[in-house]
Amino acid sequence: MKDGHKDVFKKCADFTEAQNVKDMGLYPYFRSIEGIYENQVVVGGRRKIMIGSNNYLGLAHDERVLEASQAAVRKYGAGCTGSRFLNGTMKIHEQLEEEIATFTQKEACIVFSTGFFVNQGVLATLLEGDDYILCDRENHASILDGCRFSAAKTVPFAHNNPEALRRRLSRLPAEGGKLVIVDGVFSMSGDLVDLPAMNKVAKEFGARIYVDEAHSLGVFGPKGEGVVHHFGLNDETDLVMGTFSKSLGSMGGYIAGPKYVVEYLKHKARCFMFTAALAPAVAGGVLRALQIMQEEPERMANLWKNAKKMQEGFKAHGFKIGTTASPIIPLLIGSEMKAFVFSQKLFEAGIFTTPAVFPAVRYGEAIVRTSYMATHTDEELDYVLDTCGRIGKELGIFDDAAYTGDKRKGSSGYDFTVPNESRDAAVREDAGVLAQ
Ligand code: PMP
Fold first, then answer.
1. DSSP string, 211-247
2. What pLDDT sits at residue 412?
3. How distant is the alpha carbon of residue 17 from its chain centre?
4. CB of 333 within 8 A of CB of 342?
5. What residues line ligand 1, using a CB cutoff of 6 Å?
6. Is the C-alpha dihedral spanning 72, 73, 76, 82 positive or negative?
7. Which atom from ligand 1 is nearest to the alpha carbon of 187?
8. Rounded to whole angstroms, how far apart are CA atoms 148 and 434?
9. Distance between CA 49 and CA 58 in Å, rounded?
10. What is the pLDDT of residue 407?
11. Quick check: 414 pLDDT over 60?
12. pLDDT tens-digit profile of 354-372?
């Protein structure tokens, strides 16, 4: 670089955190999966029980889904080579949109190439400079990015706390447009949103409400429609988004709501208009998965049987699992380093899962995020419980500050020795998850 000029690559050269964890033999990310056998994956030639996916209904490898995907490839080709707006709209996309609108009982729907784009695109498009986005502090990163991309002011409120929402809303001017956005099931904690209370508060202050069903589609609701249906609040909820990357085993996402809003988004949302359409193989597979989900309600029943077994089982082993009410079960570890070590030990014992550290969770509250599938067997789940319990004891996790509440032990999580300025700054600001 020329002297006296800032090099935009400098931060990359200075970024050593990942390498440090690799050097310790504890790096848990980007593990390369060589093969998949239902609930087990092969990594480094060895099978591991998968408890780190979002394949809740076990449909990602269903033969019927794979066949439908192949049929769509044969009919429409490998890709759309363009955006939906121009040359990329195929019959299969429209079919998928109609099916989702019917299934979610919304007037209309459009499908985006990823769930991330849905949140980013819809928020950036709908909200204007004098508007406010009321955003739960634990909402997903795609929502936070949507807030950033929109011209509106973001007003964060305490996680899943309708009173905090009320306080925030009560201070906003009536003339500013307001949108309350919440995850149906929060992706790290597994918490279920208190939608009845949120909805009531939103209505009191003339705010629209938008629910992200990424982790609740196929999990909540009489037929898996999501939390909005679980609470019987579909008509009261203005916009609902969902993803195809979890229960439906593929990728992509949708926004469903009033026809005139969907029509507007279709012509204005940049994440929809300026990116290639969902590949036909994806649309075909998702359509089939959506049918199977409705034809085989036993999948959702099994998912819940497994989720309940694991929630109870972890508690019985002494784990803190927070306030989860879903198949996402976070094991509270506290210390980042211990979360890495715990994950690595599980991996060596044949269990695939990953730690979540700051900024995915609040700093000092590292977890190992586990999640369950309809297809897990009792044998697999018992093995997971016993192994987690044994390794937890070996590592002294239950004696840690996160469990005993004893701050003097100095293991409240701030023991990750690698210095990081942005992390420290974020902690100082107590910016919480919004620092993402
Ligand atoms: N919303 C939530 C709550 C999520 O957890 C995710 C992904 N984990 C997304 C949106 C983004 O979805 P996708 O991965 O399908 O792009």
1. EE-TTTTTTSSTTS--HHHHTT-TTT-SEEEEESSST
2. 38
3. 24
4. yes
5. 114-116, 119, 140, 142, 183, 187, 212, 214-215, 243, 245, 251, 253
6. positive
7. 5
8. 10
9. 13
10. 64
11. no
12. 999 988 888 888 999 999 9
Distance 308 CA to ligand 1 centre (A): 23
CA atoms within 13 A on the CB side of 135: 26
* Ranges of H-type helices in 247-335: 259-268, 270-273, 280-295, 298-316
Ligand 1 nearest-atom number relative to CA 186: 3
The CA 436 to ligand 1 mean position distance, Å, reads: 15
- Mean pLDDT within 187-213: 98
- pLDDT (0 to 100) of residue 409: 53
* Centroid of ligand 1 to alpha carbon of 320 (angstroms): 25
pLDDT of residue 423: 45
Q: What is the mean pLDDT of the chain?
A: 92
The dihedral formed by the CA atoms of 124, 127, 132 and 136, expressed in degrees to the nearest 10: -40
DSSP letter for 192, please: B
Share of the chain above pLDDT 90, in %: 88
- Cα–Cα nearest to 321, from 188, 410, 430, 149: 188
Residue with CA closest to ligand 1 atom 15: 115
Domains of the chain: 10-60+298-435 (3.90.1150.10), 63-294 (3.40.640.10)
User: Taking a C-beta distance cutoff of 8 angstroms, is the pair 409, 415 a contact?
Assistant: no
Q: Write out the two tokens for 204.
A: 């009191």
